[in-house]
Amino acid sequence: MVSCVRRSSLRRLRRRGGLARLLEAPECVSLVARSAMGTLRKALIAGAVLGVGAGVGTGLFVLVTPGERQKQATLKEMPEQDPQRRDEVARTKELLLATLQEAAATQENVAWRKNWMSGGGGKSA
């Protein structure tokens, strides 16, 4: 940006009326207006670029996410939906609960057992 005022001009302006006269000069006002318009232009361009980026991101998100039918198919294929798998998980939970109940009822350290399914047979505390 080119300044419309030199040092000698500033000295004369101080003697004749100061800053008020400087702002009244048409070439300075045009520079101020250009500066404001340039800032506004940059802000609008930045907003447009961000808007386009958000639009592209949203579009890609919509393309990548599965539809309702595909979600239902995926849920049906999950291992938890298989009856054999559900029985196996229930049996494992029962064994774990039985082990915890036995550990609470005895002074033996059940963590030292080689086979948790059986009673006794390990180091004791």
From TrEMBL:
TM regions (residue ranges): 43-64
GO molecular function: cardiolipin binding; phosphatidic acid binding
Broad class of the protein's primary localization: mitochondrion
GO BP, sorted A to Z: ATP biosynthetic process; cristae formation; mitochondrial electron transport, ubiquinol to cytochrome c; mitochondrial respiratory chain complex III assembly
Transmembrane recorded as keyword: yes
Pfam families reported in the protein's UniProt record: UQCC3
Membership in a protein family: Belongs to the UQCC3 family.
Protein name: Ubiquinol-cytochrome-c reductase complex assembly factor 3
Native source organism of the sequence: Phocoena sinus
